[in-house]
């Protein structure tokens, strides 16, 4: 913001659509190419901010994908309590770096057991659909239905 404020009058001001700090990354979305160039000049001119600091400009498409996982926890506590318990009981897990993308509280749900008993099939319209478990080759249904094909991977 200091660089934006110091921009001489009459010059095009850099414009940004969005910024957020999450998981030790400052995400900045530039509105246009001149804004991107201005941001790159500003960052390259900062030098070393603190010992061990590394600033790198990376296009979002080139960032490594963070793994996404699904967990079913038999507890309806708030997210902070759940993360704290995981961190305390599993000190090797850095849950402070985790993001909860979605949370659903389901009481007494045995849908997966029911699906397993039905060979991962459910009735749909005038036929059936087949459920595919994610990244689990051991849980494929025995026969394919004409209404459903496995998802592309």
Distance between the termini: 42 Å
Q: Enumerate the strands of the largest sheet in spatial order, edge to edge or round the barrel.
A: 1-2
Helix vs. strand class? alpha+beta
Low-confidence stretches: 143-153
* Individual helix count: 4
| Residue-averaged pLDDT | 76
Large-scale geometry = elongated
Number of spatially distinct domains: 3
Approximately how much beta-strand content do the residues carry?
A: 5-15%
Instruction: Give helix and strand order, one letter per element, not per position.
Output: HEEHHHEE
The description of the largest β-sheet is: 2 strands, antiparallel
Helical content band: 10-25%
How large, in whole angstroms, is the Cα Rg? 24 Å
- E-strand count: 4
Provide the fold topology.
Layout: H1 2-5, E1 16-22, E2 25-30, H2 33-44, H3 79-89, H4 111-117, E3 121-124, E4 127-130
Antiparallel strand pairs: 1-2, 3-4
Structure explained in plain terms:
With 153 residues, the protein is of the alpha+beta class. The chain has helices at residues 2-5, 33-44, 79-89, 111-117; strands at residues 16-22, 25-30, 121-124, 127-130. It has a two-stranded antiparallel ribbon with strand order 1-2. The chain has a two-stranded antiparallel sheet with strand order 3-4. The longest helix is centred in the N-terminal third of the chain and has 12 residues, at 33-44. The protein is elongated, with a radius of gyration of 24 Å. Mean pLDDT is 76; it is low at 143-153.
């Amino acid at each position: 913001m200091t660089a934006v404020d110091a921009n001489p009058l009459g010059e095009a001001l850099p414009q940004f659509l969005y910024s957020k700090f999450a998981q030790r990354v400052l995400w900045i979305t530039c509105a246009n190419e001149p804004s991107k160039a201005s941001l790159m000049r500003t960052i390259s001119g900062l030098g070393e901010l603190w010992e061990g600091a590394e600033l790198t400009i990376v296009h979002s498409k080139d960032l490594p994908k963070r793994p996404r996982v699904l967990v079913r926890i038999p507890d309806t506590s708030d997210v902070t309590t759940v993360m704290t318990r995981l961190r305390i009981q599993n000190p090797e897990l850095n849950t402070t770096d985790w993001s909860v993308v979605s949370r659903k509280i389901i009481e007494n749900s045995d849908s997966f057991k029911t699906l397993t008993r039905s060979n991962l099939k459910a009735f749909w319209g005038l036929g059936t659909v087949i459920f595919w478990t994610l990244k689990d080759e051991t849980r494929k249904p025995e026969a394919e239905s004409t209404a459903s094909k496995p998802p592309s991977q």
